[in-house]
Amino acid sequence: MNPFEMMKNLPGINQKAQEMQEKMKAISVTGSSGADMVQVTMNGNMEVTEVKIDPVIFKPEQAQTVEVLLASAVNSAISEVKAKSMELARSSLAGIPIPGMFS
C-alpha cells in the first residue's frame, strides 16, 4: 500500500485506537493455576485487580508452592489479556488496511 493512502486512513485509525483503549479498560480476565487454588484477575491494561488463594495452601511449608502457583496464574492472566487485546484489535480495525498487521 502506498504511504499516502495510509495517511488518508490515519484519522480513522486514531479513532479506532482510542475506542480500543476504552474497551481494554473494561476487559477483565482471570488466570489460574493449581486446579484454581490460585487465581489472578487482571484488567485489559494488565493491572492485577484481584488475587485469590485457597486457604488450604496457607501453610509455611507450602510457601514455595504458592509462589510458583502465583507466578503461573499471573502469566496465565497476561496471556488471556494479550489474546483478548489481539481479538479486540482485529475487530476494531477490520476494514482499515494496515500492511503487515495481524499477519
Q: Would you kindly provide a written description of the structure presented here, covering whatever features stand out?
A:
With 103 residues, this protein is α+β, with helices and mostly antiparallel strands. It contains 2 helices and 3 strands; from the N terminus they run αβββα. The protein has one domain: Nucleoid-associated protein YbaB-like domain (Ybab, Chain: A). It has a 3-stranded antiparallel beta sheet with strand order 1-2-3. Helix 1 crosses helix 2. The two termini are 15 Å apart. 11% of the residues are buried.
CATH topology: Ybab, Chain: A
Number of DSSP strand runs: 3
If strands are numbered along the chain, what order do they take across the biggest sheet?
A: 1-2-3
Task: Output mean pLDDT.
Answer: 84
Summarize the entry for a quick read.
The chain is an alpha+beta fold and 103 residues long. The chain is 52% helix and 17% strand.
Helices, strands, pairings?
Elements: H1 3-26, E1 28-33, E2 38-43, E3 48-53, H2 63-92
Antiparallel strand pairs: 1-2, 2-3
